[in-house]
Structure formats: structure tokens, C-alpha cells
Amino acid sequence: MPSKAQYLSNLTPLRGIAALLVAIFHFEMAIARFVPAAQTMFFEKCYLMVDLFFVMSGFIMLHVYGKDFSQSISKHLLRNFFVARFARIYPLHFFSTTLLIILVIVFSPVGMYPNAMQFPAAIPTNIFLLQSFYIHKIYTWNIPSWSISSEWAAYIIFPLLALFISRKRKLSIVVMIIFIVASYLSIMYLLPRKNPLYPSIPVPHNINTTYDYGFLRGIAGFITGMMMYLLYQSNKIKNIFSRDIFTFIAILLLIAAMHFAINDGFCVILFAGIVLCFGCNSGYVHKICNNRVLQYLGLISYSIYLMQIFFQDPFSKGLRLPGVTGLGRGKQNIEFWNGLMYCIIYLLLLIAVSSITYYFIENPSRKFINRKWGNKKFDNVMATNIYSAEPSSST
Hints:
Elements: H1 11-30, H2 49-65, H3 75-107, H4 123-127, H5 146-167, H6 169-190, H7 214-232, H8 235-241, H9 244-259, H10 264-280, H11 284-289, H12 292-299, H13 301-307, H14 309-316, H15 336-373
């Protein structure tokens, strides 16, 4: 794309931290719970980190591509935009889904395939990024990839949203606020959601929708991020929120809200504030965010997010850690220190595997697709993404 945008390095570590927290959430759900909900609801609420991804995505997309669609939507820019976005999210999704299908079919114990979550009819749904549109009555295959489906849905409407904002700023803000509020309220209180494993249990009034209307959750978070970027464009706002105190307050409020299981809608508001604060910050937080380790975690965060399923799926097939008691998803408990040790090992292995898939699958595929079918400038830069860092000032 011809536009040039400042590299927002502060947001990169957020992606890495959020991806690891999602991985810990799934460790506790699928493998072993080592932090009881009675002590803190923080890890129980880490499914919300996906909403942080969505908010960051809308913020970054408007930052990078907003000017390109501010006057019109040309075929050339539209083509380059979709090629770049496809190159960023699809190759690793296709690789991880295909690999998972092969491993499940070959190594599943007799009688364990197909099962409720891994069945042939759901393969096309996942391949064509439709797994967040309630086509099936349960999450399927690479379960976290529902958010990639939602992200792609947001990309499809983004050029129209950017043009709408540019031409009708005040009206677009009103319309987007109404849509955001209506979407989250509908997810929490109106849509006919059910627990796929325990249908008789009432679904709590949260926004943890995935295969069941997850696209609505993704688009709402994406637009929330776009709204935050409109605030970010104000120099007055930047000067105010560049101070460390606002970032620290936002983080502490979020931790408290998740610990006490405050309504998910309030957490989304805090995510929006955190993205704005991190985007504006130029103080001590900025220095921390530019730490090499944190930047690297952000760089491979998309791989972390999609490859975690390979460490979790064996446990859904009957594998159990020593010392685990209880049976059923989210009901397998383990003593804290043992669980913490296993979780650290799990995260280290996940980071190692994610490093391999980033350098041998994700990054080379992106470069090849952009070089072959997109703007050749992408061969030397990183297209921005909700999960990966963008280490260049131009995209």
C-alpha cells in the first residue's frame, strides 16, 4: 500500500502477552486448572484477551490503511489490501488446520474420531473461514481460529467503514457507537446461545461467543478500536494519555475487573482505554514495551495463538497429567505448584514451536504471497496484524 504509518511499537508486547494469557486460559480449561476460581476469576476471564486483539486490530487498521480509503475505494488499493491481509492470516491458519486434521485422523484412538468437535463436515467451514457464523452447533477443529474468521469478516467491511468515517465523521461515530452497544448487548442478553457440551446449563451473560455469532463479537471489537484511533488522532488526547499514570491505572482497573468478574462489557471499555494509552505512551511504559523479549513475543504471537491447539488436543483424547483430579473440560484440577510447573513447560514448548512456524511457515508465506500477487513493497516489510508486530514504518 502507498501509505506510510508510524510503527506503534507499544502495541506489539500487548499481542504477545494477550496470546500467552489465552494459552493459559486454554491450559486451565483443557489440561489442568491450577488456580481455583474461588481465589481469583482472572484466568477464568482470559478469554477476553481475544477482544483485546479485536480492539487493537481496528486501531491498527485505521492507523495504517485509513488514508488509503479516505477518498474512494479503488480496485488497485482494495486488491492490495486484501492480498496483504490474506497473506498475514491465512497461510498459518491453513497450515495449522491441515496439520491438525492429518494428526487427528492418523493418531486418534479407535472410536475417538470423528467426535463432536472434529468431524469432516466442519472442514470446509474452517478452510473458508466461516467457523464463527454458527454453521455448526459446537466449536470445531482448531478452536481458537474462530477469531480469524471474525477478523476476516471485519476486514471485508473495513474499507467501507474507513470511507464512511472520512466522509461523514459525526454520523459515522453515532452509527458505530449504536452498533457496538447493540452488538454486545445482543451477545450477552438476546442471542440464543447454548453450552455445546452441557446444553441444559444456562449460558452466563458474557461475551464469550465463538462459533455462535463470534463474527459479531469480532466486528464490534474491531469498530471499537477504530473509534479509539479517532481519539488518538487528537494531539490533545495524545498529550494527556502519553503519561505513564493513565496506562498503569487502566491496567490495574482491568486486572481488578477480571479478578472480580465484572461485566464483560466494562472490560471491553477498559481494553479500549488500554490500547489508547499504550498507543499514546511515550514514557517508562514505552521503554518497557521496547524490550527485545517482549517485542519478540509480539512478533510470534499469531503463531502462539494458532499452535496452542496441538498441546491441548491430546488431553481431549484422554491424556492426563500426573496429579490431576476430576473429569471434564474445566473440571480437571491439580495442585498449584505442580500445575504452575506444567504450565510454564507448556508455554516454553509453545513459544519454541511458534518460533519455528513463524520463521518457516508464517513469515515466508506472507512474503511469497505479497511478492507474487500483491504490492511488491510488502516483500521487505511486515503487514500489520492483530497478532504480529509490524517492524517497519511503511506498509
